[in-house]
Backbone:
């Protein structure tokens, strides 16, 4: 039987947040078996822990935002959650001094480096979710689905008007080594013509040419930062891995996304758990 894992010791990192553009310090701590992933707003005294679960997602427009029982929120958690998933961390307490984790390099790899520094420890028995039948959510322009599979698989298709991206497609069987090599290094991206409007609305104030791939028309403004020719679709898979981590247990299934978003990813989990006949829980 597979074991659950937590961190071997406490570790911390600090930086600037993506949207608020303010300093943030992150402490990752070992947690008891069965804790799951929980966030604590260390800068808000007395605030309740926020369990990293699909049912606690409060906002998805420009990142996945969790809300706790007392109204405290923590935003843009998908890159960190993706790294925890890729590192197979089941139990972890995360103290955040700020409204979001720091953006660091705009990827999941920078969080994996922090997790590697802490090391991991096995504890308890891991369970996993397996699909009994397909679950799908669609809109007029996008779709996302989970299909029964023997191992985690991801397939994603995106399409943008910019020649920098165009149509990109990527598939992989996802294990910890593949995640670290093919998905975790993929940086987030944004469009230069949207930056001023986003910042005026309080978003993207921490994004810069060192942590975000910035597209200006048909030109990538910081091309030396690009790690893969198809980095944009790989980052969409990175986000999806983080969003699926909010299931609370590993999901053993094939994920297929077509122009999907944080919103659709969360709706997919809500559809999955809406009917217990959709899935079963087995030793992981």
Residues:
């Amino acid at each position: 039987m597979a074991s659950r894992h937590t961190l071997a010791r406490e570790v911390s990192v600090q930086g600037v947040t993506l949207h608020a553009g303010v300093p943030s310090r992150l402490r990752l701590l070992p947690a008891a078996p069965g804790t799951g992933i929980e966030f604590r707003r260390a800068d808000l005294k007395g605030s309740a822990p926020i369990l990293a679960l699909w049912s606690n997602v409060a906002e998805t427009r420009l990142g996945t935002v969790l809300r706790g029982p007392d109204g405290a929120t923590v935003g843009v958690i998908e890159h960190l959650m993706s790294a925890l998933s890729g590192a197979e961390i089941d139990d972890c307490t995360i103290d955040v001094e700020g409204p979001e984790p720091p953006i660091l390099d705009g990827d999941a790899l920078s969080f994996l480096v922090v997790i590697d520094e802490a090391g991991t420890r096995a504890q308890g028995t891991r369970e996993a979710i397996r699909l009994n039948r397909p679950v799908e959510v669609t809109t007029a322009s996008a779709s996302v689905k989970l299909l029964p599979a023997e191992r985690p698989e991801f397939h994603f298709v995106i399409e943008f008007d910019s020649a920098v991206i165009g149509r990109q497609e990527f598939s992989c069987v996802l294990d910890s080594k593949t995640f670290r090599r093919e998905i975790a290094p993929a940086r987030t991206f944004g469009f230069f013509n949207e930056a001023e409007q986003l910042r005026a609305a309080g978003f993207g104030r921490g994004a810069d040419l060192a942590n975000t791939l910035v597209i200006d028309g048909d030109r990538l403004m910081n091309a030396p930062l690009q790690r893969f020719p198809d980095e944009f679709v790989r980052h969409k898979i990175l986000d999806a891995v983080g969003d699926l981590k909010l299931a609370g247990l590993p999901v053993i299934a094939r994920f297929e996304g077509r122009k999907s978003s944080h919103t659709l990813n969360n709706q997919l989990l809500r559809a999955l758990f809406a009917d217990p006949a959709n899935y079963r829980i087995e030793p992981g």
